[in-house]
Amino acid sequence: MPFDANFLEPDAKLDEYREVRAAVKQRVKEVMATAEQPDVVADVVLKAASAARPKLRYTAGGLANRLRLLRRFAPAGLVDAGIRRDLRLDAMLVVKTP
Questions:
Q1: N or C terminus: which one in the chain shows less Cβ crowding within 10 Å?
Q2: Between 73 and 7, whose confidence is greater?
Q3: What Rg, from alpha-carbon coordinates, does the chain have?
Q4: How much is the pLDDT for 98?
Q5: CA nearest 32: which of 54, 58, 6?
Q6: With helix as H, strand as E and coil as C, how does 29-81 read?
Q7: Residue 67 or residue 10, greater confidence
């Protein structure tokens, strides 16, 4: 089953967000194409479930581990800006004047 089969569609779509919605959907598809395979997550879940003293949090995959380190040592604004840049969210902002 493809990942985007789990996307939830809004009950009422506002036309003002149509372009942004399409761009985000496309970017998520691009990111998911290079994402870790489900067995990476399954291995981490198995490790956590069988640990005698489980940790509070686990990360699965290289990107998640790098993000965990960034969140620990970098300012929140810098991390958020990096996520926005990676997902190209700022490029999608369209300001419409009345």
A1: C
A2: 73
A3: 17
A4: 54
A5: 6
A6: HHHHHCCCCHHHHHHHHHHHHHCCCCCCCCCCCHHHHHHHHHHHHCCHHHHHH
A7: 67
Structural domain boundaries of the chain? 12-92
With cut-offs at 50, 70 and 90, classify the pLDDT of residue 12. Answer: confident
> How far is 16 from 86, CA to CA, in rounded Å?
23
- Residue 82's contacts (CB-CB under 8 Å, 6 or more residues apart) are 70
DSSP SS3 for 14: coil
Q: Which residues contact 19 (CB under 8 A, 6 or more apart)?
A: 92, 94
Buried residues in 62-76 as b, exposed as e (16+ CB within 10 A) = eeeeebeeeeeeeee
Q: Supply the mean pLDDT for the chain.
A: 85
